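User: Hello, can you help with two protein structures?

Assistant: Certainly.
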Amino acid sequence: MKRASERFSIINGLAIGIDALPHNAAISAGADTIAVFGCGLGHTYPPENIKLKQQIVEQGAIVSESLIYEARRE
């Protein structure tokens, strides 16, 4: 992810696979990264990304338009 190393901020979802890739690249490059949640911030979906969510909180931000414990929408 060349852009992450150029200090661009990454803004992306947090789904499995393709959404997690840019966040991991930003974290590795020391760039800012912002995860946009499709549910409340009290949830982590998919649960496989709990560690990644914590890394993003430490190095960037997580945002959502949902209430904190609102479940994801189908």
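That covers the first. Now for the second protein you mentioned:
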Amino acid sequence: MKTKELPRFPTIREEARFGNTLSEHELRLMLKRGELPGFYYGESQKYFKINHEQLVELLNERSNTKREAS
């Protein structure tokens, strides 16, 4: 059985299902706060694609910062 590969610029739902980073709810909260790396697309600019590589880097930086603060 083939596993689905995560696209380089997944939607929030694809990232939550296949990206193994955060839940869909947490990703949407990050988008609302302006912290989610990516871009809007579509005619009305209402759809959002995540830059997966930058998201992983962001999460790694945050986890390293928390460890150093401890």
